[in-house]
Design a protein that fits this description.
The protein has 80 residues and is of the alpha+beta class. It has one domain. Helix content is 52%, strand content 12%. The chain has three helices and two strands. It has a two-stranded parallel sheet with strand order 1-2. Helix 2 packs parallel to helix 3. The longest helix is centred in the C-terminal third of the chain and has 19 residues. It is globular and about 30 Å long. The protein starts with 5 loop residues before the first strand and ends with a helix.
Length: 80
């Protein structure tokens, strides 16, 4: 079984952030989650080394395509 301990949440809805983070704490309080309201903000943080490279980025199906297109850039930024 794979355990993800670093998550990156990208969602523009504050209520979704709160719901997700509360549920996550109930499931496993050792999981760290960094939350952003938009993908550009998340990419900037990764590029600047201000955010950990996540093990998993949960999201909606329509958001995944854009993230997958930018994932190589994010990995490159995080390694720089």
């Amino acid at each position: 079984m794979i355990y993800y301990k670093r998550l990156l949440l990208i969602d523009d809805d504050q209520d979704d952030h709160e719901f997700f983070l509360e549920a996550l704490q109930e499931i496993d309080s050792s999981i760290r989650c960094t939350a952003f309201f938009d993908g550009e903000q998340a990419l900037r943080q990764l590029k600047n080394g201000e955010s950990e490279v996540p093990d998993l980025i949960p999201g909606h199906e329509h958001a995944k395509t854009k993230w997958q297109a930018n994932s190589c850039r994010a990995k490159t930024y995080a390694k720089s």
